[in-house]
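Hi Y.,

Following your request, here is the sequence exactly as I used it, all 307 residues.
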Amino acid sequence: MAKHILVIGGTRYFGKLLVQRLLRAGHQVSIATRGYAPDPFGERITRIRVDRRNEHAMRNAFRDCRYDIVYDQMCYSPLDAAISTRVFAGKVGRYVMSSTIDAYREAAPTAEGTYREADLPVLARRIDTHYPWHDPGRAVESYVAGKVQAEAYLVRDGNLPLATVRLAHVLGGPEDFTGRLAHYVDLVRAGAPLRYTNAAARVSFMEAAGAADFLLWAGMQDFLGPVNAADDGALSAFELHARVARVLDEPAAATRVAAQAPGQLSPFDFATPLALDTARARALGYRFGHTDDWLDDAVRHHDLAFV
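Below is the corresponding structure, written out as tokens. Let me know if you'd prefer a different format.
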């Protein structure tokens, strides 16, 4: 049955892929966007031009709207979460917030190095409404805490039928703007050594298409609460660098260091493992792929961009 769906932030990367999948499935889709980024959807969607961080504008834009599903790709702080609860309470059948594996960086380390949903006690997190969450100069440093506190706010408020998708690090695809995989490609092609801290500190990954597939699936289910999403085949920064070198048929020079200051670490280089336990999603019926299915092709794509 076709559903009326709103995607907040559906104009780039896997948000765009999600919208494509929703349209292909026959749903009626609207996207909320500031209107700065173009999209390829033409007249197949409804565009609602609004600043997601402006509560007055959000209230006006969605005053008379009701949705079966809202996918919120742009909930980055408790301030954003508060706006959502006040704008959408009683108006949505299902509210799917995109969160991140990085949220577990604020959890206590586990012996196995893998994290289940319950390992992040969001209700124990203090919500800081005075922090300058919308300061663009602090966007990177506030990202993790902002996601955790956004989750905490939505759970404590309890007025939205909330499912929180904690996505693994998303890589690949022609619109990967993050530069994280490209960092390793560039490093290998330049013949520069990787400086790493722990060769065994594996982290979880997903392909962009896989992230969109999972979000589509999660929206159509009826479970509530957090759920992890990750492909099998976690890799450490050391292993990812070696994999890139093998694909490109180049030597993998690497040097272990005791520690590095923030900003000197390569992407995905952690002192301890940060991998997702996906048992809940599997029990609900989802089947994940493996990094072996797509990583080599993603490396080759970034190598072409390097050339």
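The first strand starts at residue 4 and ends at 8.

Thanks again,
Q.
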